[in-house]
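Justification of computing resources. Each target in the renewal requires a structure prediction run like the one illustrated here; the chain below, 153 residues long, is used simply to show the kind of job we budget for.
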Amino acid sequence: MNREIKFRAWDKIQEKMVYNVGIFPTGEAMFPMDYGAELNNKTAPRFVESAFVEDGKEKWKDILMQFTGLKDKNGKEIYEGEILKTCDNPKGETNIGRVEWRNYMAQFVWYCKLKTGGAITCELSNHLEKEGIAESYKIIGNIYENPDLLTKK
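Resulting structure tokens:
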């Protein structure tokens, strides 16, 4: 399976998700041409400043997230930071967890704290029913715009 490499970023200053983001070799985000125009209501700069200084320390204003190469049951692209709900439990139970990259596993996983205590980590690639489609999962939000979804019981 060929996987498309693309990114999105959470802009912490504007509190907004930005898609079609490039990456500088330094790891900073390169925002789309029209992003600056939308913020400044004028001609767009090619790049948006990615860091700012607060309390004498440089802080990143954007958080990069990579596309996993997978889509949920509705065909929506799954990125790091997505909140996914399981859809295939034979008992009708659902679990809600977040998509993370695990360096030691070199892959994207779905991490879920169970209602009964404990947690599970599932390799997303193990849940492919069709080419690139994770039929067992549905995107219900992301950890930046909907963090409350992970704390609901």
